[in-house]
Amino acid sequence: MFKRAKQSRVFQDVVDQIQEAILTKKLAPGTRLPAERDLKEMFNTSRGTLREALRVLEQKGLIEIKLGVSGGAIVKQIDTDPLMESLALLIQSGEVSLEHLSEFRIKIEGSLVELATERATPKDIEELERMQARARHCYDIQDWESFLKTDEAMHTYIGTMTRNPVFQFVQKSIHDNIHRYYQDFLPMNRERTLENLQDFDKIIAAMKAKDGVAASATITDHVQRFHDKMTGKRP
Amino acid sequence: MFKRAKQSRVFQDVVDQIQEAILTKKLAPGTRLPAERDLKEMFNTSRGTLREALRVLEQKGLIEIKLGVSGGAIVKQIDTDPLMESLALLIQSGEVSLEHLSEFRIKIEGSLVELATERATPKDIEELERMQARARHCYDIQDWESFLKTDEAMHTYIGTMTRNPVFQFVQKSIHDNIHRYYQDFLPMNRERTLENLQDFDKIIAAMKAKDGVAASATITDHVQRFHDKMTGKRP
DNA sequence: CGAATCAAATGGTTTAACCATTAAGGCCCA
DNA sequence: TGGGCCTTAATGGTTAAACCATTTGATTCG
Q1: Which one of B19, B104, B171 makes the best mutation probe of the A interface by having the most chain A beta carbons within 10 Å?
Q2: A178 in B contact zone (CB under 8 Å)
Q3: Nucleotides of C under 7 A from a protein CB
Q4: Which of A106, A233, B33, B54 could form a cystine bridge with A228, CB 3.0-4.6 A?
Q5: Is B4 a domain residue?
Q6: Residue A201 is part of a domain; what is its CATH number?
Q7: A60 near B CB under 8 A
Q8: For chain A, what is the mean pLDDT?
Q9: Each residue of B197-219: pLDDT tens digit?
């Protein structure tokens, strides 16, 4: 019925006030907050307490703190970085395994590609083709590391094509985390790389034809193959 | 090519050391860290700086701080709460709208229910039926608020049935955030509530029959209807 | 004009003290 | 004996004042 009455922590009140001002756009991104020695007066608190509040806001990704004269706390444009950091913590702690992530990816990436196909602009297709050309070049000179980077960039770009920040975050966090631990268990080789290239050829062709179902099917198969290799299954 | 050399901030070093110890399980959940006045000696720093570090770790969800004698910093079991908080910030700031979230939900919740159906135990089904009975009771006495709570609990429970923490987080965060802003635009009424009940009857029946496809189809339709109402479309 | 130097603003750190909360033990009195 | 009250000590929360380190811009000098 009742929640524990919150123990009053001064710094928490400061955090709440500044956060409220940022979320309601009373403080726009780019705005510079007053200096610590001024803020401390405004909130009628001490500098130590005020700094604890700023530390929390910084950790939440709401402000950024710069050094030197004309430095100080600057209101940031909110982004998904704190979300990504939290997810990385969950993975590093073992609460979430790469198998969990990969299973999720199998279920979601098809829908994501389908949505991206619906909303793809000619510019998007051009951009993907540029990236695919770069990937092919990496394959030719057998630069696997750059190939992986390009591959990740293509997946992430398809996420942005959905024009939905939720899909964008999901796609970015999946690939960011999968690739971060990639080489631990999945060495790159010529054969797998070629498969990747061919899959993306198919996907781009399907996107051009506005065939979301085909694009979806191709990527789902692509992802399933990755998952099977990772979990040690062999066809 | 190069990243800016990190400006040395003492508190950051303290954060990194403690975080490392927690993630590598050198400090197990439940462990109590030494008192601030002792930690400050160990890290050879001041109490203010040390407290900034503790504040960051608390914000990350890695420790919890209790007051009084035998209080102090206690290592927490990592969970998805910080992730949820970050997402809530994105939504409150308007970076992510409820339409975005709802569109995502349409694509994912079918797969999620399918997976839950595959992995459902008899106990899971029993639990769902208990919840459904409670929802029906709320409907009978026209207690819409409790009905919504039960509805959310059922969706969240289906998330746990996947046995995959990624799906669990996704499901929890979607419904947590959708319901938080629910009444702003979607007033509950007798008709919609009855639809909800009937949908869940179908889903539970499909789960009993291990018919993942039917369960998936039902929930997707359910979610799509919700989305259409929210975005103002009428069939 | 350009480079070196200096000065001021600002965040980062340290120290020392005091306040507030909590748990535990002891004391008093019925 | 038992229950309630008080004291005490440990611990986080807060304050204050000073100094250090970094950055920027103005000033000075060759």
Answers
A1: B104
A2: no
A3: 7-17, 20-24
A4: A233
A5: no
A6: 1.20.120.530
A7: yes
A8: 91
A9: 999 999 999 999 999 999 999 99
| Bases in strand D with any atom closer than 7 Å to a protein CB | 9-18, 21-25
Burial class of residue B146 in the structure, from the number of CB atoms within 10 Å of its CB (0-12 exposed, 13-18 middle, 19+ buried): middle
CATH number of the domain bearing residue A67: 1.10.10.10
Q: Do A80 and B89 touch (CB under 8 A)?
A: no
Give per-residue pLDDT as tens, B125-168. 999 999 999 999 999 999 988 998 999 999 999 999 999 999 99
Same domain, yes or no: B220 and B167: yes
**Would you say the C-alpha torsion B227, B144, A20, A74 has a positive or negative sign?**
negative
| Of B20, B46, B75, the domain-final residue | B75
Q: Is the pLDDT of residue B6 over 70?
A: no
CA distance A168 to B91: 14
Quick: pLDDT tens for A178-218.
877 766 666 667 888 899 999 999 999 999 999 999 999 99
Q: Contact A78/B100, CB-based, under 8 Å?
A: no
A67 neighbourhood in chain B, CB within 8 Å: 7
Task: Tell me what pLDDT residue B235 has.
Answer: 40
**Three-state DSSP class for residue A75:** strand
Domain final residue pick, B75, B101, B129: B75
Structural domain count, chain B: 2
Do B54 and B151 fall into the same domain? no
| Owning domain of residue A65 | 10-75
